[in-house]
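Our preliminary data section would be incomplete without showing what the modeling component actually yields. Below, a chain of 295 amino acids is followed by its predicted structure, encoded as C-alpha coordinates that our downstream tools consume directly.
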Amino acid sequence: MATSRSHVKGRRVFITGAAGGIGRAVARRAAAQGAVLLLTDIDADGLDATVRSVRAAGGDVAYARAADIASYDDVRAMAGEIHADGGPVDVVMNVAGISAWGTVERLEHRHWRSMVEVDLMGPIHVIESFLPAMVAAGRGGNLVNVSSAAGLIGLPWHAPYSAAKFGLCGISEVLRFDLRRHGIGVTLVCPGAVATPLADTVEIVGVDRNTPTARRLHAAFLKRAAAPEEVAETILEGMRRGRYLVHTSGGIRVLHGLKRLAPPLYVLAMRLANRAADRALGAAARSSQAGVGVR
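Predicted structure:
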Protein backbone atom coordinates (compact mmCIF):
# COMPACT_ATOMS: atom_id res chain seq x y z
CA MET A 1 0.00 0.00 0.00
CA ALA A 2 1.13 3.54 -0.69
CA THR A 3 2.33 5.45 2.33
CA SER A 4 2.82 8.99 1.04
CA ARG A 5 0.46 11.77 2.05
CA SER A 6 -0.78 11.85 -1.56
CA HIS A 7 -2.21 8.33 -1.27
CA VAL A 8 -5.19 9.20 -3.50
CA LYS A 9 -3.34 11.39 -5.99
CA GLY A 10 -4.27 10.42 -9.55
CA ARG A 11 -6.51 7.58 -8.32
CA ARG A 12 -10.10 7.07 -9.39
CA VAL A 13 -12.20 7.40 -6.24
CA PHE A 14 -15.90 6.44 -6.22
CA ILE A 15 -17.88 8.03 -3.37
CA THR A 16 -21.54 7.50 -2.47
CA GLY A 17 -23.47 10.03 -0.41
CA ALA A 18 -21.49 12.88 -1.95
CA ALA A 19 -24.26 15.50 -1.79
CA GLY A 20 -23.49 16.55 1.77
CA GLY A 21 -22.11 15.71 5.19
CA ILE A 22 -19.22 13.26 5.37
CA GLY A 23 -19.58 12.34 1.68
CA ARG A 24 -19.15 15.92 0.49
CA ALA A 25 -16.35 16.59 2.96
CA VAL A 26 -14.37 13.50 1.97
CA ALA A 27 -14.90 14.28 -1.74
CA ARG A 28 -13.52 17.78 -1.30
CA ARG A 29 -10.60 16.56 0.79
CA ALA A 30 -9.73 13.74 -1.63
CA ALA A 31 -9.91 16.16 -4.57
CA ALA A 32 -7.54 18.52 -2.76
CA GLN A 33 -5.10 15.60 -2.51
CA GLY A 34 -5.30 14.98 -6.27
CA ALA A 35 -7.96 12.29 -6.56
CA VAL A 36 -10.09 11.86 -9.67
CA LEU A 37 -13.63 11.81 -8.31
CA LEU A 38 -16.60 9.68 -9.35
CA LEU A 39 -19.60 10.79 -7.30
CA THR A 40 -23.18 9.79 -6.61
CA ASP A 41 -26.07 10.64 -4.31
CA ILE A 42 -29.83 10.42 -4.44
CA ASP A 43 -29.99 14.22 -3.92
CA ALA A 44 -29.35 15.63 -7.40
CA ASP A 45 -29.22 19.27 -6.30
CA GLY A 46 -26.84 18.56 -3.45
CA LEU A 47 -24.66 16.47 -5.74
CA ASP A 48 -24.49 19.31 -8.27
CA ALA A 49 -23.45 21.67 -5.48
CA THR A 50 -20.64 19.32 -4.46
CA VAL A 51 -19.41 19.07 -8.04
CA ARG A 52 -19.39 22.85 -8.42
CA SER A 53 -17.57 23.27 -5.11
CA VAL A 54 -14.89 20.72 -6.00
CA ARG A 55 -14.31 22.11 -9.47
CA ALA A 56 -14.23 25.70 -8.19
CA ALA A 57 -11.36 24.65 -5.92
CA GLY A 58 -9.49 23.07 -8.86
CA GLY A 59 -10.53 19.48 -8.20
CA ASP A 60 -11.20 16.81 -10.83
CA VAL A 61 -14.72 15.35 -11.03
CA ALA A 62 -14.75 12.84 -13.87
CA TYR A 63 -18.25 11.50 -13.23
CA ALA A 64 -21.33 12.47 -11.24
CA ARG A 65 -24.78 10.91 -11.38
CA ALA A 66 -27.81 11.11 -9.12
CA ALA A 67 -28.84 7.57 -8.21
CA ASP A 68 -30.38 5.50 -5.44
CA ILE A 69 -27.88 2.98 -4.04
CA ALA A 70 -30.81 0.95 -2.71
CA SER A 71 -31.56 0.17 -6.37
CA TYR A 72 -29.31 -2.58 -7.69
CA ASP A 73 -30.16 -1.53 -11.25
CA ASP A 74 -29.05 2.06 -10.57
CA VAL A 75 -25.74 0.95 -9.14
CA ARG A 76 -25.09 -1.53 -11.94
CA ALA A 77 -25.81 1.18 -14.50
CA MET A 78 -23.32 3.53 -12.85
CA ALA A 79 -20.66 0.84 -12.70
CA GLY A 80 -21.18 0.09 -16.38
CA GLU A 81 -20.78 3.74 -17.34
CA ILE A 82 -17.73 4.28 -15.13
CA HIS A 83 -15.96 1.11 -16.27
CA ALA A 84 -16.71 1.82 -19.93
CA ASP A 85 -15.28 5.32 -19.67
CA GLY A 86 -12.12 4.73 -17.63
CA GLY A 87 -11.90 1.14 -16.43
CA PRO A 88 -11.97 -0.11 -12.84
CA VAL A 89 -11.81 2.39 -9.99
CA ASP A 90 -9.01 2.42 -7.42
CA VAL A 91 -10.95 3.38 -4.30
CA VAL A 92 -14.58 2.66 -3.35
CA MET A 93 -16.05 4.68 -0.48
CA ASN A 94 -19.47 3.63 0.83
CA VAL A 95 -20.57 6.75 2.70
CA ALA A 96 -24.29 7.16 1.91
CA GLY A 97 -26.77 6.32 4.62
CA ILE A 98 -30.02 7.16 6.39
CA SER A 99 -31.13 6.78 9.99
CA ALA A 100 -34.22 6.40 12.14
CA TRP A 101 -34.42 5.85 15.88
CA GLY A 102 -37.17 4.33 17.99
CA THR A 103 -38.22 1.73 20.51
CA VAL A 104 -39.50 -1.61 19.29
CA GLU A 105 -43.12 -0.84 20.25
CA ARG A 106 -43.12 2.37 18.20
CA LEU A 107 -41.14 1.29 15.13
CA GLU A 108 -42.99 0.38 11.95
CA HIS A 109 -41.95 -2.17 9.36
CA ARG A 110 -40.92 0.61 6.96
CA HIS A 111 -38.23 1.77 9.39
CA TRP A 112 -36.60 -1.65 9.57
CA ARG A 113 -36.84 -2.19 5.82
CA SER A 114 -35.50 1.23 4.80
CA MET A 115 -32.45 0.92 7.07
CA VAL A 116 -31.55 -2.47 5.61
CA GLU A 117 -32.24 -1.45 2.00
CA VAL A 118 -30.14 1.74 2.09
CA ASP A 119 -27.53 1.20 4.80
CA LEU A 120 -26.78 -2.47 4.16
CA MET A 121 -28.00 -3.47 0.70
CA GLY A 122 -26.77 -0.17 -0.74
CA PRO A 123 -23.11 -0.88 0.13
CA ILE A 124 -23.59 -4.49 -0.96
CA HIS A 125 -24.81 -3.30 -4.37
CA VAL A 126 -21.70 -1.10 -4.67
CA ILE A 127 -19.35 -3.88 -3.57
CA GLU A 128 -20.97 -6.32 -6.02
CA SER A 129 -20.73 -3.85 -8.88
CA PHE A 130 -17.24 -2.39 -8.39
CA LEU A 131 -14.99 -4.78 -6.44
CA PRO A 132 -14.81 -7.69 -8.94
CA ALA A 133 -13.40 -5.33 -11.59
CA MET A 134 -10.84 -4.04 -9.06
CA VAL A 135 -9.79 -7.59 -8.29
CA ALA A 136 -9.52 -8.47 -11.99
CA ALA A 137 -7.42 -5.36 -12.68
CA GLY A 138 -4.78 -6.66 -10.27
CA ARG A 139 -3.49 -3.28 -9.18
CA GLY A 140 -4.84 -3.25 -5.61
CA GLY A 141 -6.86 -0.41 -4.16
CA ASN A 142 -9.02 0.44 -1.19
CA LEU A 143 -12.54 -0.20 0.06
CA VAL A 144 -13.87 2.19 2.70
CA ASN A 145 -17.14 1.32 4.44
CA VAL A 146 -18.65 3.98 6.69
CA SER A 147 -20.60 2.14 9.36
CA SER A 148 -21.32 3.79 12.72
CA ALA A 149 -20.78 3.57 16.45
CA ALA A 150 -24.16 1.82 16.23
CA GLY A 151 -22.39 -0.94 14.31
CA LEU A 152 -20.09 -1.64 17.25
CA ILE A 153 -22.10 -1.08 20.43
CA GLY A 154 -25.73 -1.28 21.55
CA LEU A 155 -26.79 2.35 21.35
CA PRO A 156 -30.31 2.97 22.74
CA TRP A 157 -33.23 3.30 20.31
CA HIS A 158 -30.99 2.29 17.36
CA ALA A 159 -32.18 -1.26 16.60
CA PRO A 160 -33.04 -0.86 12.86
CA TYR A 161 -29.99 1.30 12.20
CA SER A 162 -27.79 -1.17 14.08
CA ALA A 163 -29.24 -4.08 12.11
CA ALA A 164 -27.74 -2.53 8.97
CA LYS A 165 -24.57 -1.09 10.47
CA PHE A 166 -23.60 -4.28 12.34
CA GLY A 167 -24.14 -6.09 9.04
CA LEU A 168 -21.78 -3.71 7.25
CA CYS A 169 -19.20 -4.29 9.98
CA GLY A 170 -19.51 -8.04 9.42
CA ILE A 171 -19.02 -7.70 5.66
CA SER A 172 -15.97 -5.50 6.26
CA GLU A 173 -14.49 -7.99 8.73
CA VAL A 174 -14.63 -10.75 6.12
CA LEU A 175 -13.44 -8.64 3.20
CA ARG A 176 -10.42 -7.30 5.10
CA PHE A 177 -9.01 -10.82 4.83
CA ASP A 178 -10.60 -11.95 1.53
CA LEU A 179 -9.29 -8.91 -0.36
CA ARG A 180 -5.84 -8.80 1.22
CA ARG A 181 -4.35 -11.23 -1.29
CA HIS A 182 -5.46 -8.86 -4.06
CA GLY A 183 -3.74 -5.87 -2.48
CA ILE A 184 -7.08 -4.21 -1.66
CA GLY A 185 -7.12 -2.65 1.78
CA VAL A 186 -10.37 -2.41 3.74
CA THR A 187 -11.09 0.44 6.13
CA LEU A 188 -14.14 0.32 8.40
CA VAL A 189 -15.16 3.74 9.72
CA CYS A 190 -17.36 3.92 12.81
CA PRO A 191 -18.19 7.55 13.56
CA GLY A 192 -19.84 8.78 16.71
CA ALA A 193 -21.80 12.03 16.64
CA VAL A 194 -21.17 14.05 13.46
CA ALA A 195 -22.80 17.39 12.58
CA THR A 196 -24.25 16.41 9.19
CA PRO A 197 -27.63 17.04 7.52
CA LEU A 198 -28.54 13.51 8.66
CA ALA A 199 -28.45 14.73 12.26
CA ASP A 200 -30.98 17.41 11.35
CA THR A 201 -33.39 15.08 9.56
CA VAL A 202 -33.18 11.74 11.42
CA GLU A 203 -36.64 10.46 12.30
CA ILE A 204 -37.11 9.71 16.00
CA VAL A 205 -40.29 7.65 15.99
CA GLY A 206 -42.94 9.12 18.25
CA VAL A 207 -41.01 12.36 18.82
CA ASP A 208 -41.95 15.73 17.33
CA ARG A 209 -38.56 17.36 16.72
CA ASN A 210 -40.14 20.80 17.14
CA THR A 211 -40.91 20.36 20.84
CA PRO A 212 -38.67 22.31 23.24
CA THR A 213 -37.40 19.04 24.73
CA ALA A 214 -36.42 17.64 21.34
CA ARG A 215 -34.74 20.90 20.38
CA ARG A 216 -32.67 20.86 23.56
CA LEU A 217 -31.59 17.29 22.88
CA HIS A 218 -30.63 18.18 19.31
CA ALA A 219 -28.59 21.16 20.50
CA ALA A 220 -26.79 18.94 23.01
CA PHE A 221 -26.01 16.44 20.23
CA LEU A 222 -24.55 19.11 17.97
CA LYS A 223 -22.46 20.50 20.81
CA ARG A 224 -20.47 17.27 21.07
CA ALA A 225 -20.59 16.33 17.37
CA ALA A 226 -17.50 16.34 15.16
CA ALA A 227 -17.38 18.43 11.99
CA PRO A 228 -17.66 16.48 8.70
CA GLU A 229 -14.35 17.96 7.54
CA GLU A 230 -12.59 16.60 10.62
CA VAL A 231 -14.12 13.16 10.04
CA ALA A 232 -13.12 13.23 6.36
CA GLU A 233 -9.50 13.92 7.27
CA THR A 234 -9.57 11.06 9.80
CA ILE A 235 -10.97 8.68 7.17
CA LEU A 236 -8.38 9.52 4.52
CA GLU A 237 -5.54 9.38 7.03
CA GLY A 238 -6.75 6.00 8.31
CA MET A 239 -6.91 4.66 4.75
CA ARG A 240 -3.44 6.06 4.00
CA ARG A 241 -2.01 4.31 7.04
CA GLY A 242 -3.69 1.02 6.16
CA ARG A 243 -5.85 0.97 9.29
CA TYR A 244 -8.80 -1.37 9.38
CA LEU A 245 -10.93 0.20 12.14
CA VAL A 246 -11.19 3.98 12.26
CA HIS A 247 -12.94 5.73 15.14
CA THR A 248 -13.83 9.41 15.00
CA SER A 249 -14.91 9.71 18.64
CA GLY A 250 -12.83 9.04 21.74
CA GLY A 251 -15.93 8.12 23.74
CA ILE A 252 -16.97 5.44 21.27
CA ARG A 253 -13.41 4.10 21.22
CA VAL A 254 -13.58 3.71 25.01
CA LEU A 255 -16.98 1.98 24.96
CA HIS A 256 -15.86 -0.38 22.20
CA GLY A 257 -12.75 -1.15 24.23
CA LEU A 258 -14.89 -1.92 27.29
CA LYS A 259 -17.05 -4.25 25.22
CA ARG A 260 -14.01 -6.27 24.13
CA LEU A 261 -11.87 -6.10 27.27
CA ALA A 262 -14.23 -5.53 30.21
CA PRO A 263 -17.71 -6.81 29.30
CA PRO A 264 -19.28 -6.23 32.76
CA LEU A 265 -18.29 -2.54 32.62
CA TYR A 266 -19.66 -2.27 29.09
CA VAL A 267 -22.97 -3.76 30.21
CA LEU A 268 -23.17 -1.27 33.08
CA ALA A 269 -22.33 1.66 30.80
CA MET A 270 -24.93 0.68 28.21
CA ARG A 271 -27.63 0.11 30.83
CA LEU A 272 -26.98 3.61 32.16
CA ALA A 273 -27.04 5.00 28.61
CA ASN A 274 -30.34 3.25 27.95
CA ARG A 275 -31.90 4.70 31.09
CA ALA A 276 -30.69 8.17 30.15
CA ALA A 277 -32.09 7.80 26.62
CA ASP A 278 -35.45 6.56 27.94
CA ARG A 279 -35.68 9.55 30.25
CA ALA A 280 -34.68 12.13 27.65
CA LEU A 281 -36.30 10.74 24.51
CA GLY A 282 -39.26 9.42 26.49
CA ALA A 283 -39.89 12.93 27.77
CA ALA A 284 -39.71 14.25 24.21
CA ALA A 285 -42.19 11.60 23.08
CA ARG A 286 -44.60 12.48 25.89
CA SER A 287 -44.32 16.16 24.98
CA SER A 288 -45.13 15.28 21.39
CA GLN A 289 -48.19 13.30 22.41
CA ALA A 290 -49.34 16.20 24.55
CA GLY A 291 -49.28 18.42 21.48
CA VAL A 292 -46.84 21.01 22.77
CA GLY A 293 -44.80 21.22 19.55
CA VAL A 294 -43.78 24.64 18.37
CA ARG A 295 -44.35 24.91 14.63
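The chain has one domain: 12-289. Residues 109-137 form the longest helix (29 residues). Preliminary results of this kind motivate Aim 1 of the renewal.
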